[in-house]
């Protein structure tokens, strides 16, 4: 081969190599950890790009969906897992198709626009209009609710406490026995809104089927929450099934505590929104580095119950499981 041809071939090879690596930076963030590992073992450059993807994933579980980054921290020596993989939604979502993918770990992930927290609206509903003494007050039609999609006030309204995403510094830390957990990365005063429980909203039939599947696969860490509201005489009048196992937000990392923990759960309704949302508030002052926990419910004796390691004085020894 003459010298000129050789030179052209080398130049072409270099250009196609560069193009491949540019594409790799775009498609690697779509891969799950096992796929990323396979690709990274093929050559040094792909290894380097994968390493960058992993370090960006570790720096923010929320992928830029929340205003504040929520980093992973794994203090367990010898444990190679730097982060936990799932798809992120900051609010309630419908069932996602099994092949749905989302990029995580690219360098242009910052999202500034707050997500719309309302999945369905009530057609023709009327909320508040220009409340003279501010929204949420005695004369506001939303005094027992949060303002919502049928109100004229904007996202800065004081009566939309739970609709602007995570506003406190948090982190996800791994514990040898309980796995990943949500921790305060700053002092959180009692009463402060912490986060919504976001995930796929399911019918009770779907929730039951998924729970059965999760019970059968011991290595899974399911995050299916069932919240029921009761009438004064005991009957269930409302039930929300939210599954954050495959797609969810930071609340999917909140571990159980038999003493009720330091979070309380509130069902929040908004004017003009069809579905209520499940939200967590600090039930007491929470110190920096303290784990955030709540009670998953009443303990039922059942086969294959998972052990509880909450360390509360009144620990029942096994985790509650939802009787779906
Ligand atoms: C909603 S997830 C919480 C996050 C989970 N630790 C993880 O690593 O993804 C629920 C699962 O966490 C674990 N878990 C939660 N609270 C626990 C506790 N008090 N003791 C032991 N395991 C716990 C159980 O495996 C449970 O099925």
UniProtKB/TrEMBL annotation:
InterPro entries per UniProt: H3K9_Histone-Lys_N-MTase, Post-SET_dom, SET_dom, SET_dom_sf
Keyword Hydrolase found: no
GO terms for cellular component: chromosome
Keyword annotations from UniProtKB, A to Z: Chromosome, Metal-binding, Methyltransferase, S-adenosyl-L-methionine, Transferase, Zinc
Alphabetized Gene3D superfamilies for the sequence: SET domain
Domain Post-SET: 304-320
Segments forming domain SET: 166-297
Subcellular location: Chromosome
Top-level taxon of origin: Eukaryota
GO biological process assignments: methylation
PROSITE patterns, per the entry: POST_SET, SET
GO molecular function: metal ion binding; methyltransferase activity
PANTHER family named in the record: HISTONE-LYSINE N-METHYLTRANSFERASE SET-23 (PTHR46223:SF3), HISTONE-LYSINE N-METHYLTRANSFERASE SUV39H (PTHR46223)
Protein name per UniProt: Histone-lysine N-methyltransferase SUVR3
Source organism of this protein record: Perilla frutescens var. hirtella (Perilla citriodora)
């Amino acid at each position: 081969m003459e010298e000129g041809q050789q030179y052209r071939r080398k130049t072409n090879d270099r250009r196609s190599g560069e193009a491949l690596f540019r594409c790799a930076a775009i498609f690697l963030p779509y891969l799950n950890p096992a796929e990323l590992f396979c690709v990274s073992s093929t050559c040094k450059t792909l290894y380097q790009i994968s390493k960058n993807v992993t370090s960006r994933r570790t720096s923010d579980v929320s992928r830029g969906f929340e205003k504040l980054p929520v980093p992973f921290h794994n203090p367990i020596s010898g444990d190679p897992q730097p982060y936990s993989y799932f798809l992120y939604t900051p609010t309630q979502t419908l069932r996602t198709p099994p092949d749905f993918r989302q990029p995580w770990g690219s360098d242009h992930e910052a999202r500034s626009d707050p997500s719309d927290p309302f999945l369905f609206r009530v057609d023709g509903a009327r909320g508040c209009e220009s409340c003279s003494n501010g929204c949420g007050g005695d004369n506001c039609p939303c005094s027992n609710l949060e303002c919502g999609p049928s109100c004229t006030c904007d996202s800065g309204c004081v009566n939309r406490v739970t609709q602007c995403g995570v506003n406190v510094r948090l982190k996800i830390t791994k514990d040898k026995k309980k796995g990943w957990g949500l921790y305060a990365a700053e002092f959180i005063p009692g009463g402060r809104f912490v986060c919504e429980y976001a995930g796929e909203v399911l019918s009770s039939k779907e929730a039951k089927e998924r729970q059965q599947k999760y019970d059968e696969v011991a290595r899974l860490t399911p995050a299916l929450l069932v919240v029921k509201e009761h009438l004064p005489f005991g009957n269930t009048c409302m039930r929300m099934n939210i599954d954050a196992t495959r797609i969810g937000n930071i609340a999917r990392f909140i571990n159980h505590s038999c003493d009720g923990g330091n979070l309380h759960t509130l069902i929040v309704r908004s004017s003009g929104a069809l579905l209520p949302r499940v939200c967590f508030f600090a039930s007491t002052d929470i110190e920096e580095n303290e784990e955030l926990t709540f009670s998953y419910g009443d303990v039922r004796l059942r086969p294959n119950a998972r052990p509880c390691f909450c360390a509360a004085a009144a620990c029942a020894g096994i985790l509650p499981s939802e009787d779906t």
